[in-house]
Design brief:
The chain has a single domain, classed as Deoxyribonuclease I, Chain A (4-Layer Sandwich). It has helices spanning 11-25, 44-48, 118-140, 173-183, 190-194, 226-229; strands at residues 2-7, 29-33, 53-57, 65-69, 73-78, 91-97, 101-108, 144-149, 188-189, 203-204, 216-217, 220-224, 232-237, 253-257. Helices cover 24% and strands 27% of the residues. The chain has 259 residues and is of the alpha+beta class. Helix 3 (118-140) packs parallel to helix 4 (173-183). The structure holds one DNA strand of 18 nucleotides.
DNA sequence: ATGACAATCAGAGATTGA
């Protein structure tokens, strides 16, 4: 099965670009972030007509995650456990029924800027909750993955201009350490399992001609449990999507699994 | 040091993003 994660930056503004991409690239499962819509306003019929089941976890104006799937889904759940007072829609899970069942977690990790400050505190606290859920997925010993916009630049090689991000919440040492702690539990970062070296990005700012200068960062990731990593056949980024009409500032990142 | 760009809600301009 082919699974992509894509921060679409608003479903209302991206319905055309998202539809074209689904038609051309044909993921079995699309994990979406920043739908920026309440569930009632998500154009679900539009995507159901393309053969996708649609599951959304939205809120007004900001954040919001979704899963579109051509394969059957079971046990869809919403929200990251660990803080009943957290009202931000950033987490969705489902089990995809392919040749093997794979637990899929879609996430939109808080940006955290400005740092330091309450938004950065929220980011780090959210990552602690993520680590708890990640450990549970590992303990299940089932094929599972966590994919989405992590808002983490893992290493300097993941930015065209690492010095520009030195004081940013996406690259601060505490952010990177929290990401690494999760990886070190035993996850495989799918893209880096296949491709090494600099120059691979998943986000280019709308400002200052970042796309034309290839001034990007790599912040959208797939983390696989060992049982899922055993199924990994390929992982890649689809940068050309950034050059289309009315694009998101992110592009899709993919895994292909023998599942 | 600032703003550049885009989206949302609202119906102007503040807020958020990364």
């Amino acid at each position: 099965m082919k699974i992509a994660t894509f921060n679409i930056n608003g479903i209302k503004a991206r319905i055309g670009a998202l539809s074209d991409w689904l038609d051309e690239s044909a993921p079995d499962v699309a994990i979406l972030q920043e739908i920026k819509s309440v569930d009632e306003n998500f154009p679900r019929e539009h995507f159901e007509d393309k053969g996708y089941s649609v599951h959304t976890h939205g809120q007004k104006s900001f954040n919001g995650v979704a899963i579109l799937s051509k394969l059957p889904l079971e046990d869809v759940t919403f929200g990251l456990p660990g803080d009943d007072d957290d009202e931000q829609a950033r987490w969705i899970e489902a089990t995809v029924m392919g040749k093997s069942a794979v637990r899929i977690c879609g996430l939109y990790l808080p940006n955290g800027n400005p740092a330091p400050g309450p938004k950065y505190d929220y980011k780090l606290a959210w990552m602690e909750r993520l680590q708890t859920r990640a450990a549970q997925l590992l303990a299940s010993e089932e094929p599972a993955l966590m994919a989405g916009d992590y808002n983490i630049i893992p290493q300097d090689e993941d930015a065209a201009r690492p010095e520009a991000w030195r004081e940013d919440a996406l690259a601060l040492p505490d952010s990177r350490a929290a990401f690494r702690r999760i990886l070190n539990l035993g996850f495989t970062e799918a893209f880096r399992a296949r491709t090494q070296g600099p120059g691979h990005y998943s986000f280019w700012d709308y400002q200052a001609g970042a796309w034309n200068k290839n001034d990007g960062i790599r912040i959208d990731h797939f983390l696989l449990t060992p049982q899922c990593a055993d199924l990994l056949e390929n992982s890649w980024i689809e940068p050309e999507v950034r050059g289309r009409e009315k694009p998101s500032d992110h592009v899709p990142v993919w895994v292909e699994l023998a599942a």
